[in-house]
Amino acid sequence: MTSEPLVLGIETSCDETGIGIVRGTELLADVVASSVEEHARFGGVVPEVASRAHLEAMLPTMDRALRTAGVALSDVDAIAVTAGPGLAGALLVGLAAAKGYAFAASKPLYAVNHLAAHVAVDTLEHGPLPEPAIALLVSGGHSSLLLVEDLARGVNPLGATIDDAAGEAYDKVARLLGMPFPGGPPIDRAARGGDGAAIAFPRGLTGPRELAAHRFDFSFSGLKTAVARWVEARERAGEPVPVADVAASFQEAVCDVLVTKALDACRTHGIQTLVIGGGVAANSRLRALAEERAARHGIDVRVPRPKLCTDNGAMVAALGAHLVAAGRPPSGLDAPADSALPVTTVLL
Ligand code: KG4
Ligand code: ZN
Asked: Is 194:247 a contact under the CB 8 Å cutoff?
């Protein structure tokens, strides 16, 4: 029997330089160097700063990943890299590095989709993904519901956010509550001491008329504005802002909508498996609520451990290994970076 493919994955689409090494669905190394602290004072990722940081982190991160996995570059069967979507300059650094390594070591290159990698990473935690599955993808830049019939060939988008992504809403609400960037983790923590039912914040695109046109779409911009208005009203009245209750009630609105729509997609398509990926999947309330409600409907929820939800190289390696195992042909060394790569394109 031939062994599972040994694949090295490189991720540089945003502010994390991630290099992961997997053998099939087994995780051997997952090294992440983040430039998040360099962006924190700007309240968002500064593309030029991120590109420079990727360049500086690439070689040491690669060395650490190879050492952790106990392999040499010459041992790997393929190199996978995020080709998009993401910040153009940041993507270019990872893609150029991957091409250099692939060319120097004569390895096939797989230029892959970051969003599909957020889905594939779950295989490192829970083994091969039962297909078809519904994927709920919630990150700083994207919020989508996908029908995954064959991840190696592509995914079908069922719906997506029509304005802010879920992670973006966390980041913006955190900012108005005076919390640091990225806002997901501090809101998650603050919400633990608050009451999610304290304030009835709106659930976007869940009314009967909206559902007719946007059943599997999301909208978080109205929620963000509602939180801002609520906080402003308190401040104007000279009353203290109950930060924990605001955080918990905001979080409840986000998670309620995400889980309701994801389970609706499972039921509508007769699907038993829901996989959740992307940075917001690290959220403790989202994980708990999804499990609690899915269990009632006999649906199996798969969410990887938090460290694999936020951006990393292991997710790219996991997708690469899946593509190699499925016999997909590699990309050419001329594969471009595509900052707006559609989720339907898994491999360039
Ligand atoms: O997937 P990711 O690491 O990068 C993108 O591809 O965008 O997602 C980053 C997003 C940020 O908006 C961050 O605030 C959010 O994920 N996030 C969280 C949590 N951890 C990270 N949101 C809610 N709760 C968390 N625990
Ligand atoms: Zn991501």
From this structure: yes
Structure tokens that stand for 314 in this block: 């292991």
Under 8 Å between Cβ of 281 and 309:
yes
Ligand 1 binding site (Cβ under 6 Å of any ligand atom): 14, 139-141, 167, 170-171, 182-185, 188, 278-280, 282-283, 310-311
Q: Three-class SS of residue 219?
A: coil
CB 11 within 8 A of CB 309: no
Nearest Cα to Cα of residue 280 among 139, 151, 150, 143: 139
Q: Which residue has the tokens 């929620």?
A: 223
Pocket test for ligand 1, best of 139, 175, 284, 287 (most atoms within 8 A of CB): 139
Determine the residue type at 167: G
- Given the CA of residue 311, which atom of ligand 1 is nearest to it? 3
Q: What sign has the CA pseudo-torsion 121, 124, 128, 130? A: negative
Q: pLDDT tens for residues 101-127?
A: 999 999 999 999 999 999 999 999 999
Tens of pLDDT, residues 146-193: 999 999 999 999 999 999 999 999 999 999 999 999 999 999 999 999
pTM value is 0.96
CA of 249 to the centre of ligand 2 (A): 25
Closest to 313 in 3D by CA, of 81, 111, 77, 103? 81
